[in-house]
Amino acid sequence: MLRVLNNEFDPKQDETIFSVICNVPSLGLSCFGCCGHHFKDKATMQKFFDENKELLAKYLEEGKSYEDFMNRERLLDPCGGCYSLMREEDEAGREQYYCGVHPFRIGREIRVGYCDHDYLCKTAAHVQKMTAAEKHLFYQFLKEQKFDSFQYSMINANETVLLGMYREWKEKSIKDGKIPLNT
Ligand code: SF4
Ligand code: SF4
Over the stretch 55-65, which tens digit does the pLDDT of each residue have? Predict the structure, then answer.
């Protein structure tokens, strides 16, 4: 299964030069789309994420390890998500989703053999290979959509839907003269 919430966004670069789209902090977007399947509604998922977060805190308080926490379950919850998924708010109060055992959070990689932590969905893999100019355009597209992270995750859970939306947006933007024909 699945992969990680991967933040390779480089704040030193222009905001448009992201290498992956899993997290786009400047737009308040974080995605959990490939950390499960057939997700339930937002309220159900939020409750699930909060329970996972509380349980992780309890594990650590009791002296248990991140490995103990992650390995307590290998299957997905009936709500569709991985038992290590959690949520928090960013500085602007926007809901963000994350893997509670991600190396950015715990300082080491423990997920090898647990999940496909290097996985990139087709859209993310495609965007990663775009030129800087095309990434800039893709960023403009994302900005205009005003997704919240839950919507963003649900769209990305369907592999290429976002890419299709982007292509339509680009075609229309060219037709409307908003972006040059040869973009
Ligand atoms: S362990 Fe983390 S990266 Fe792997 S599926 Fe679960 S939430 Fe996603
Ligand atoms: S579904 Fe795609 S965009 Fe979302 S976290 Fe996975 S690879 Fe990244």
Answer: 999 999 999 99
